[in-house]
Amino acid sequence: MIRLAHVKGLLAILLVLMFIQSAAAQVPQIMNYEGTLTDTDGNPVPDGTYEIQFRPILRRRLLC
Fold first, then answer.
1. pLDDT band at 49 (very low <50, low <70, confident <90, very high)
2. pLDDT, tens digit (0-9, with 9 covering 90-100), for 4-23
3. DSSP states of 19-61 as a string?
4. If we measure between CA atoms, which residue out of 32, 16, 12, 36 comes closest to residue 24?
5. Average pLDDT over every residue of 39-62
6. What is the pLDDT of residue 61?
7. 46 Cβ neighbours under 8 A, 6+ residues apart
8. For residues 50 and 39, is the Cβ–Cβ distance under 8 A?
């Protein structure tokens, strides 16, 4: 006969595993970025729609 404590323990483990799996499945595929768009003199540009390009800087370490 299975004891109630064993059943509760198994249910708790099952719930933890389900939580871990659902948390890992929710990794965002996009990155949000907020900033201020300025002109070449550093003044904010008027409200509107602007096309920008975001490029991360990738640096390689030199192994000596």
1. very high
2. 778 888 888 888 887 776 66
3. HHHHHHTT--SS-------B-TTSPBPPSS-----------PP
4. 16
5. 84
6. 67
7. none
8. no
Hey, what are 36's tokens? 């201020």
- DSSP H or E segment with residue 4: helix 4-24
Beta bridge partners of 44: 38
One-letter amino acid at 2 equals: I
Q: How far apart are CA 11 and CA 17, in angstroms?
A: 10
Amino acid at 25: A
Distance CA 2, CA 5 (A): 8
Rounded to whole angstroms, the Cα distance separating 2 from 26 reads 36
CA separation for the pair 47, 24 (Å, rounded): 38
